[in-house]
UniProtKB/TrEMBL annotation:
<protein>
    <submittedName>
        <fullName>SPW repeat-containing protein</fullName>
    </submittedName>
</protein>
<dbReference type="InterPro" id="IPR005530">
    <property type="entry name" value="SPW"/>
</dbReference>
<keyword id="KW-1133">Transmembrane helix</keyword>
<feature type="region of interest" description="Disordered">
    <location>
        <begin position="136"/>
        <end position="161"/>
    </location>
</feature>
<feature type="transmembrane region" description="Helical">
    <location>
        <begin position="49"/>
        <end position="75"/>
    </location>
</feature>
<keyword id="KW-0812">Transmembrane</keyword>
<dbReference type="Pfam" id="PF03779">
    <property type="entry name" value="SPW"/>
</dbReference>
<feature type="domain" description="SPW repeat-containing integral membrane">
    <location>
        <begin position="35"/>
        <end position="130"/>
    </location>
</feature>
<feature type="transmembrane region" description="Helical">
    <location>
        <begin position="115"/>
        <end position="133"/>
    </location>
</feature>
<feature type="transmembrane region" description="Helical">
    <location>
        <begin position="87"/>
        <end position="109"/>
    </location>
</feature>
<keyword id="KW-0472">Membrane</keyword>
């Protein structure tokens, strides 16, 4: 006898969680964090040419790679929040790297321009990534969908676990 049970993709709890993730990223806060993250990553990638330290090739390439990676990580937060939310921590590490990179990259790249640029952009990137990581479904005003007290019994009264 074949079972007609629906797949896990159709489970009511999973559908509710996905809807909650969608509501979380549709907020003004979620959209602002994503937009500012994309702008920050784009600026970080282009900053050697904007600020004028593109002659220092090691840090210029470092900023280019870090900026592209940061923009890609932060850009995914709004489109696929349920899968990329935890990647915001990787974006925070990129922000931290941006702050310390003028002193860590080989060569004499710790000029006033590189230090000021990378520290300011790194702090902004770190704060945005932490804000993205702190976005949790159900933590907004008026939401009461906390699953911690959920009933763990199945439809027959037995344990689902």
């Amino acid at each position: 006898m074949a079972s007609t049970r629906p797949s896990i993709e159709q489970h009511p709890d999973l559908l509710a969680l996905r809807a909650e993730y969608e509501r979380t990223t549709a907020t003004n806060r979620g959209q602002a964090i994503e937009a500012m993250g994309l702008v920050t990553g784009t600026y970080l990638a282009a900053s050697p040419w904007i600020v004028g330290f593109n002659g220092l090739s090691t840090i210029a390439v470092g900023n280019l790679i870090a900026g592209i990676a940061y923009a890609m990580l932060m850009g995914g937060v709004g489109r696929a929040f349920e899968r990329t939310h935890s990647m915001a921590w990787a974006a925070a590490i990129i922000g931290l790297w941006t702050i310390i990179s003028p002193w860590c990259i080989a060569g004499n790249v710790s000029t006033t321009r590189t230090i000021v640029n990378n520290v300011v952009v790194g702090v902004i990137a770190l704060l945005l990534a932490l804000a993205a990581a702190s976005m949790r479904p159900g933590t907004g005003r008026g939401k009461s969908s906390d699953m911690r007290g959920a009933d763990m019994r199945g439809p027959t009264g037995g344990s689902r676990i």
